[in-house]
Design a protein that fits this description.
Layout (H helix, E strand, L loop, with lengths): L2 H8 L4 H13 L5 H10 L3 H11 L5 H9 L6 H10 L6 H13 L3 H13 L6 H6 L6 H12 L4 H10 L5 H10 L1
Helix pairs in contact: 1-2, 2-3, 2-4, 3-4, 3-5, 4-6, 6-8, 7-8, 8-10, 10-12, 11-12
Length: 181
C-alpha cells in the first residue's frame, strides 16, 4: 500500500485499522514510518502503543526515542518490555542514562536480562562495573546476559572475569564465558 492510503486509513480511530496501518508501515519499512509511530505512541490504547513501539525499533528519531523512554516507567509490563526492546541498538546518551536508571529500579528478571543485554550492546568499558554487579544476580538469565555482554568489551579485565566464570554452576553462563574467551 502507498503512504497516502495508509495515512488516510490511520486517521480512523478504530483500533484494528490503526494496528493494520502500523504493522503494514513497519513491515514495509516505509520512510514515513516515524509519522505513524509518533501518532501511535500518543494513543492511549496499549495495543496501539505496542505496535508503535515495534515500529520504533527501525527509527533513530530523537523525539521518538524520548517518547519510548517514557514507557520504561509504565505500570504495564508489556509496554515496558516493548519499550526496552525498541531501545536496543540506540547508543545515545539519553538511552544510556535511562537504561542505567531502569537497571536500578526494575524488579522483573526478564526485563533486567534484556536491559543487561542492551548495556552490553554499547560495548563500552565504562559499563564493566554495572555488568560485574549482575554476575552475582540470582536469576541465571540475567547472569548469562551479563557474561555475554562483558564478552563484547575487549579489555584484559574482562578476560580475567571470563576465565573465572568458565567454572560457573550454570551451563549457559559457562558457555557464554567460553564463547567470550
Amino acid at each position: 500500500m502507498d503512504f497516502t492510503t495508509l495515512k488516510n486509513l490511520f486517521r480512523d480511530r478504530d483500533k484494528m485499522i490503526r494496528l493494520f496501518v502500523l504493522k503494514t508501515a513497519t513491515r514495509q519499512q516505509m520512510p514515513e514510518l516515524d509519522e505513524f509511530v509518533m501518532e501511535g505512541l500518543r494513543d492511549e490504547r496499549p495495543e496501539i502503543i505496542t505496535a508503535a513501539l515495534k515500529g520504533a525499533r527501525q527509527t533513530r528519531n530523537p523525539e521518538i526515542i524520548g517518547m519510548i523512554l517514557t514507557y520504561l516507567e509504565s505500570p504495564n509490563l508489556l509496554l515496558r518490555t516493548e519499550a526496552l526492546n525498541a531501545l536496543e541498538g540506540k547508543n545515545v546518551p539519553q538511552v544510556r542514562q535511562a537504561i542505567g536508571e531502569f537497571l536500578r529500579r526494575e524488579e522483573d528478571a526478564n526485563l533486567l536480562a534484556t536491559a543487561v543485554r542492551i548495556v552490553g550492546s554499547f560495548q563500552a568499558p565504562e559499563y564493566i562495573p554495572v555488568l560485574r554487579a549482575f554476575l552475582s544476580f540470582e536469576d541465571e538469565r540475567v547472569r548469562a546476559n551479563a557474561v555475554e555482554s562483558l564478552a563484547g568489551i575487549p579489555t584484559p579485565e574482562v578476560v580475567d572475569m571470563l576465565k573465572a566464570l568458565v567454572s560457573d554452576r550454570n551451563n549457559r553462563v559457562r558457555a557464554n564465558a567460553i564463547k567470550g574467551l
